[in-house]
Amino acid sequence: MKRRDISVVALGLMVLLACATNVLAQKTVKVAATSKDVLDNVPLFVGVKMGFFEEAGMKLDISYFRGGGEVVRGITTRSVEIGATPAASPIFIAFARGEPIRIISGSGAPMAGVVWIVNADSPIKSVKDLRGKKVGFSSPGSLTHTVIQSVLRKEGMEKDVELVRVGAPGDSWAAVKNKIVDVGWHVSPSVYALIQKKEARIIIDASHYINEYQQTVVAAMEDIIKREPEMLRNFLRARAKAVNFLYSNPDKAVAIWADELKLPVEVVRLGYNDLPKGYFETGAPKMENLKAALKEVLDSDALKAPIDLNKVLDLSLLPR
After folding, report:
1. Strand partners, 135
2. 59, 90, 57: which is closest to 73 by C-alpha?
3. Of the chain's two ends, which shows fewer C-beta atoms within 10 Å, N or C?
4. Taking the model in full, what pTM does it have?
5. Which CATH architecture has domain 114-208?
């Protein structure tokens, strides 16, 4: 074999070896997220599609759960290593019960994209029409559970409505259509598909009732923080790149989001336009939002006493 041919073969082998090494270096990281429809998952979609997590040396194995309470159970049972989009409220509840769970970053704030809907032909026209009705939420201790209780409390109707666990947004809509509940929760952007088809109407937009609120966070168990700090740092760095990308490239971000949810781009764009300025966080959550979320949990009696928010936080892994 000629020297030149040997060099070409050697170069090819080096490239193959480098690719194989890169594949072997990819760490599979188990991640828990709320139901796929929820807008808080967009940085995951973008980060995976654009290769940011792969660049950080990880392959995400994402499990989607029906509510924030189930996400937190996935974290506390160690079936996942990272909670990418749990609501703050079930984190507080788990911490108060003695679970060594920690918030390692903000994710989304304030309240956005959480609504309650009825069939388009329903006689229910406003919150005041909910007396004696059944209203759905995702799971006990979840964001939707504490928030609907807060809304009803503010309307003076907390004792006049029956709350029913209905699971994820798709399950909730099925419960509404099958008249298991009169009103079900849903999320932006997929709710706009129902509205455009004239199948549903929004009765409650939670953001109209709650201004300051920590909707979601990134969380992990204390032992995983100690054992895998670099993996968690890399996850947060990659997520931060995804957040920066989705704000600087809105059309591409909307296209990725639409493809992931199998929704029309125009529907997803409505959801993107709904986002409060700076909704997706890449650093420490604001204390006022955490305090507001804690107040909602206390007011709903999901917690009997306040917790020390500083003890729930471990911000040592945030990107610098």
Report:
1. 163, 183
2. 90
3. C
4. 0.86
5. 3-Layer(aba) Sandwich (3.40)
